[in-house]
Amino acid sequence: MKILWVGTGFLHPTVRGGQIRTLEMLKQLHRRHEIHFAALADPRQPEGPARSAEYCVRAYPVTFRNPQPRSPLFWCQLARGLASPLPTAVFRWRSARMRGLLTRLLEQERFDHVVCDFLTPAVNLPRHHECILFQHNVEMLIWRRLAENAPTPLRRAYFRMQAARMSRFEGRICRSVRHVVAVSETDAALMHSLYGLERVSIVPTGVDVGFFTPPEPPPPLTTDLIFVGSMNYLPNIDAVEYFVREILPQIRRRRPACTLTVAGWDPDPAIRVLAKTDPRIRVTGAVPDIRPYVWESAVAIVPLRCGSGTRLKIYESMAARRAVVSTTIGTEGLTLHPPSDIRLADTPEAFADACLQLLENPAERQAVAEAGWQLVSSRFSWAEAARRFEEVLEQYPAPH
Q1: In this predicted model, what pLDDT tens digit does every residue of 278-305 receive, in sequence order?
Q2: What residues contact 204, with CB distance under 8 A and at least 6 apart?
Q3: What does pTM read for this prediction?
Q4: Rounded distance, CA 93 to CA 396, Å?
Q5: Is the dihedral of CA 192, 11, 283, 377 positive or negative?
Q6: 3-state helix, strand, coil in the chain (%, to 5)
Q7: What fold does the segment set 2-206+382-395 form as a domain?
Q8: Where are the domains of the chain?
Q9: Whether 87 contacts 165, CB under 8 Å
C-alpha cells in the first residue's frame, strides 16, 4: 500500500507518548508498505526530518515555528486564539503552506490511504472525506477534565471555553472522515456517545518489552518514586503538582526521606521550581535514555486527573519491571488486572497508602512488578498493533 501519513510534527526527538505510538507503528508498517510522511518541521529540531528515513520512503517537511510557551509571542497567539472559533490547541498549528502541500500531493499522487495522525493536522487537510483519522485521545475530554481540576475561576472558564470549541471541532472532523481509529474501547464508546460515530475501529497500545526489560544484574535503587512524561503537557503538569501538593506530604509523614524523580522533556517552570524548593525532588528535563531512571526507581506513579487515550508510560514501566500506582483515569483503556499487576487509587489518602505499601514491602512490590511484566510481555507488541492497523486500512480503502 502507498500511504500518506500526515502529522503535526516529526517524530524525533521522541518525547511524548503519542510520538512513541506513531513511531513504533510506522516502523512496522514501513517494512511492508510505501510510507510518505508530511508534517510541520521546527527548524530548532533538525533531528526530526533527518531521521525520518527510519519510518518512511519520503518526507515532506514544511518549515513552521510556533512560539515557545510563556514567551510574549505565545501569549499574543493565545490572545488571537480567543477570537477564533477553533480551539487554541488547533488554531496555533494552522499553516497555509502545509495546506497547499497536501492539496498538491492529493492532486498529483495516487495514495491508497491518507492517515491523519491525531486531530490537529486535520486543520490543514483539504479533503477530510478521504482520510482515516488516528485518534490517540478524545481531545475534548482532556480540556473538560482540565476545567474540572483547574485551581482558579479564570482558568476554569478558559478551559471550559476550550473544551466547548474542541467538542465542536472534534465532532465535525470525526463525522467527516472516512473512518476513525481509536486506541481503546473506552475512547471508541465515548466518541460514539459524544459524536454519534459508528465508523470506529480499535488498535491497541503496544510496548517494546525487550527494550525496557532491565539488565542483569539490575541497577541498584536510587529513588523511591518516579513520574515519567513530557513535562510541558498540561495533564502531566497537573498530575505532578497534584501529587506533590496533596499526596507526597502524606507519604512523608511515615517515610520522611521519600524521594521523587520527575523525568521528562521540557519541564514547565511550575515543575522546575519543585526541585528548587525540595532537595528530595529531582526534575531531570530531557534525558538521552529514560530507562536507567525507571530501573533505578522503586515505584512508578501515574497520578493523572486529566487526559484521554491510553498511557504508554504504564506499559513501559511494567516492561521495565517496575510496580505501578495509578489513578483510574491513568489506566483508562488499558488491559490490566488490579491489584495483582497494578495498584489503583483515586484519593490522596489511598494513593499515599498504595505507594507506602509497595515501598515498605519489597516482596509485594516485586510480585506486582512481575505480574505487570508477564502481562505486557505475553500480550502486547507493536507488531500486533500494526497488524491490526493494516486490517483497518484494508477494510476501508480510499475513494479515488
Answers
A1: 999 999 998 989 999 999 999 999 999 9
A2: 183, 184, 335, 380, 384, 385, 388
A3: 0.86
A4: 28
A5: positive
A6: 50, 15, 35
A7: Rossmann fold (3.40.50)
A8: 2-206+382-395, 209-379
A9: yes
